[in-house]
Specification:
This protein is of the alpha+beta class. The chain folds into two domains: 75 residues, Nucleic acid-binding proteins (OB fold (Dihydrolipoamide Acetyltransferase, E2P), Beta Barrel); 170 residues, Recombination protein O, C-terminal domain (de novo design (two linked rop proteins)). Helix content is 40%, strand content 21%. It contains nine helices and eight strands. Strands 1-2-3-5-4 form a five-stranded mixed β-barrel. Strands 7-6-8 form a three-stranded antiparallel sheet. A hairpin with a 3-residue loop joins β1 and β2. The longest helix is centred in the last third of the chain and has 19 residues. It is elongated and about 65 Å long. The protein starts with a strand and ends in a 5-residue tail after the last helix. It binds zinc ion. The site of zinc ion (ZN) has 8 residues, from α5.
């Protein structure tokens, strides 16, 4: 069987057969791929830890008839600081789920940029942040921009009129902020203030240090998070379980 080397980040995993696992992994070179890890569920298997979501690997893969099989595997990074906190684990799993939901298998064009974006976010999330959602939200905004779904923030995304009275809402189906008139008539519009729109702009552009030190007031922070994560859910086409879990933690119910 022909083989090829790849670096990858595990997005999700599922059990197959009696002892095996199949991982969905993001590779910068080949896009999103499914790889079989034979024997990964056997007790004491070295591959067991390597199939955990958001583990970074270097692998040698044999091309199979239906699925490719990992024949050699080296763990590059496990992001252990994230695994020691429920919030870190939930945030990292959510970002992996979002990438899995939004990136198509044939989309190799964006794969390298998304891979770098995700690895950068996981590294940054290991450091203490004033507002941990800053890194998650910033990563989501950059991911959406990379995939061609950057939200429209400058004028009403529905009627295209200038936002003279300030933005009043955010509509995922319209693709961004809305004026007062449209906000009252579009079904999926959620409320959004001018402060929250300004915060989304900052999140789109801010560097690592700013993201770690960003500490916005509670109200605009909650509105911006709701708009960004609702927008991602719209494009994912479904409510991700990891998003629900993260929201429960945010509300203080899951800790
Ligand atoms: Zn409008």
């Amino acid at each position: 069987m022909p083989t090829y080397p790849a670096q990858c980040l595990v997005l999700t995993r599922r059990d197959i057969g009696e002892n095996d696992r199949c991982i969905t992994a993001l590779t910068p070179e080949h896009g999103k791929r499914n790889f079989v890890m034979r024997g990964a569920r056997r007790s004491g298997s070295k591959l067991s830890g390597a199939t955990e979501p958001f583990t970074r690997l270097r692998v040698l893969v044999a091309t199979g008839k239906s699925l490719d099989v990992v024949t050699q595997c080296e763990v590059v990074a496990v992001y252990s600081a994230l695994r020691s906190s429920m919030a870190g684990l939930a945030g990292a799993c959510y970002l992996c789920d979002v990438v899995d939901a939004l990136l198509h298998e044939h989309d190799q064009q964006s794969a390298a940029a998304v891979f770098n974006l995700l690895c950068h976010a996981l590294n940054l999330m290991q450091q203490p942040a004033m507002w941990p959602d800053a890194i998650i939200n910033a990563t989501l905004l950059r991911l959406m921009a990379e995939l061609g779904y950057a939200p429209h923030l400058e004028s009403c995304s529905c009627c295209v009129e200038p936002l003279d009275g300030g933005p009043a809402g955010f509509s995922p189906s319209s693709g961004g902020v809305t004026c007062r008139v449209c906000a009252s008539s579009i079904k999926d519009a959620v409320s959004l203030s001018a402060e929250a729109v300004a915060l989304i702009g900052i999140l789109s552009r801010a560097g690592a240090r700013t993201l770690l030190e960003l500490c916005p007031p509670e109200k605009p922070a909650a509105l911006a998070t709701n708009a960004i994560q609702g927008y991602v859910q719209f494009h994912a086409g479904r409510l991700l379980k990891s998003a629900e879990f993260l929201q429960a933690l945010r509300m203080g119910r899951g800790l």
